[in-house]
UniProtKB/TrEMBL annotation:
MF-aspect GO terms: 4-hydroxy-tetrahydrodipicolinate synthase activity
Protein name as annotated: Dihydrodipicolinate synthase
Family of this protein: Belongs to the DapA family.
Domain of life where this protein originates: Eukaryota
GO biological process: small molecule metabolic process
PROSITE patterns on file: DHDPS_2 (PS00666)
Gene3D superfamilies for the chain: Aldolase class I (3.20.20.70)
SMART domains xrefs: DHDPS
Upper classification of the organism: Eukaryota, Fungi, Dikarya, Ascomycota, Saccharomycotina
Pfam families: DHDPS
Keywords: Lyase, Schiff base
């Protein structure tokens, strides 16, 4: 929200239906009212929406609604939590969602959250479809180097968060899905683009900011920092997150 107000030309990843926090009807209402009827967004604001869920039929329904949205420019496609599909099943799932979309798609692999890890061979197979323009890899960063060596086209490799970012850039990551950018958009943006150019002059200063964010339960801390630096009121985290705040 800070970034939007400062008129950044940015991507806004919005993780709709990534878990069971919202049912499908609530998720669709968010798209209807929070995005498609929102008049304050700049016309060139690039809005990406996260599409995933535990039930494939609901993911397909969500993809159909996202496809009809004029506000949403691209999709961050995640994998179902808890189910741990085979690689072939995950590829099939991806292809079924792609059938519902004409918008650009970025794959999102986050083994820590889903229990499933998209393999290099699966990534390469899916990149045969040029509708897929990149991948956000929150698992083994070495995987990106392996993909790059065998891929014959240019795609976007998103680092998930700022931790170990210099190392990830050295491995081939060229985009950032920022967490700290929700609080310090200009500082994180400048730092990231400087790192891409081989400059790390701001690293010590940014490290202090990141330590403030990541040294505790970071979602709880993130909400605190957003509230402290903006007029956005976000309420409390869902328990068990924030339990220690109440004691």
């Amino acid at each position: 929200m800070n970034s939007v107000k400062e008129d950044f030309h940015i991507a806004v990843p919005t993780a709709f239906h990534a878990d069971e926090s919202l049912n499908i009807e609530e998720t669709l209402k968010h798209i209807d009212h929070s995005l498609d009827q929102e008049a304050r967004f700049a016309p060139d604001l690039e809005i990406l929406v996260g599409v995933s869920g535990i039930r494939q039929k609901e993911v397909l329904r969500l993809a159909e609604r996202v496809e009809r949205s004029n506000a949403i420019k691209a999709v961050l496609l995640g994998y179902p939590p808890y189910l741990v599909p085979s690689q072939a099943e995950a590829v099939c799932y991806t292809e079924k969602v792609l059938e519902k979309l004409s918008k650009p798609v970025i794959l999102y692999n986050n083994p820590l959250r889903t229990g499933f890890d998209l393999a290099v061979e699966s990534i390469l197979h899916l990149f045969d479809n040029h509708q897929i323009i990149g991948i956000k890899e929150a698992g083994d960063p070495e995987k990106i180097q392996a993909v790059q060596k065998r891929l014959d086209r240019t795609v976007y490799y998103y680092a998930g968060g700022e931790q170990d970012l210099e190392k990830k850039i050295s491995l081939g990551f060229n985009r950032l899905s920022s967490i700290a950018g929700n609080v310090w958009p200009q500082e994180i943006s400048n730092w990231f683009f400087n790192l891409l150019e081989g400059k790390n002059d701001d690293t010590d200063k940014i490290s202090l900011l990141l330590e403030n964010l990541y040294n505790d339960s970071f979602l709880v801390q993130l909400k605190k920092l957003i509230i402290a630096t903006s007029d956005v009121q976000m309420g409390n985290c869902r328990a068990p997150l924030g339990n220690l705040e109440k004691e």
